[in-house]
């Protein structure tokens, strides 16, 4: 039996976002325990030309919501990208999870061969529903989730693989 496109997206994004929320909780607790300004962690970058933790969370959320709205041919949902604090990032994650939970399965399943167009600053990238999920959306989502994990871990936050996986 083939795996349904819904199963490859919505539950995976929700699990990843819940894991990201847990990582942020541990980051906030670490900052409080060590007397570190939380903005030091939320503004952390791996290197100067990479975006900070705040953007990694925003991009992970954007990938999840953008994927399901493109696949399901649903109205895009804009978010302002103004989050700076752990609490604001948690609110964005919660809003994204609520959006994902509201997407009906029948809007995603059966769209494997549907034309999906990703609009980028340099133009448009055409995909099928399946290729969009498998070659762009999931890798992109996990890139940002991994980068957020790495930023917190590099700062000394006591997190590990099980935290990244969201518990097992």
TrEMBL record:
InterPro entries per record: DinB/YfiT-like (IPR034660), DUF1993 (IPR018531)
Family matches, as Pfam families: DUF1993
Domain of life: Bacteria
SUPFAM superfamilies reported for this sequence: DinB/YfiT-like putative metalloenzymes
Name of the protein this chain belongs to: DUF1993 domain-containing protein
Source organism: Sphingobium indicum BiD32
């Amino acid at each position: 039996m083939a795996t349904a496109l819904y199963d490859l997206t919505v539950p995976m994004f929700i699990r990843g976002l819940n894991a990201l929320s847990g990582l942020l909780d541990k980051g906030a607790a670490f900052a409080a325990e060590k007397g570190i300004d939380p903005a030091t962690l939320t503004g952390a970058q791996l290197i100067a030309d990479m975006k900070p933790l705040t953007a990694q969370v925003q991009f992970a959320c954007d990938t999840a919501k953008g994927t399901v709205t493109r696949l399901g041919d649903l109205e895009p949902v804009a978010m302002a990208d103004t989050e700076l604090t752990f609490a604001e990032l948690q609110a964005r994650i919660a809003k994204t999870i609520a959006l994902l939970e509201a997407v009906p399965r029948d809007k995603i399943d059966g769209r494997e061969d549907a034309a999906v167009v990703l609009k980028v600053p340099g133009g448009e990238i055409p995909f099928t529903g399946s290729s969009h999920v498998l070659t762009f959306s999931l890798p992109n989502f996990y890139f940002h989730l991994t980068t957020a994990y790495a930023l917190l871990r590099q700062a000394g936050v006591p997190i590990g693989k099980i935290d990244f996986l969201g518990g097992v």
